Amino acid sequence: MTIDFNPDRSIQELERDNWGNPPQDTTGLVQAVYTLRQRPLGSLSAYELGRLIGQSVGLRWTLPLALKVLRDTVDDNNRGGFYDDDLLSAVLSRKSDTWNNFPELAKETKEIVSLLINLTPDMERQVKRFHKASEGSA
Q: Considering the entire predicted model, what is its pTM?
């Protein structure tokens, strides 16, 4: 998949929407999301991408970056090495409207998932739910 945006830009810049500071009495997750939206996308770790995706923030940009990370680490998974199940879980748990809006990303996700072996039973269930949610998209 080709990344068709400048990863030196933040979600805030790309959306042209400054959320300002998070509310004073908010959770750590909300504070993190506000902060992560201001960071250049290319500087985000897999964990940080997973947090944004889990909150459905900037999916137009965060999903392609996450899929690149997942594709680049398929071989690590298949050799029994570390694979970011949290990031994969964040991607797989998107609702059907996400996949309807981004059918090319659904197709890419299906390709990546088809390459993975030895998934945990929980991850296998998530893959099944993803396939059901993405049925009409790709």
A: 0.89
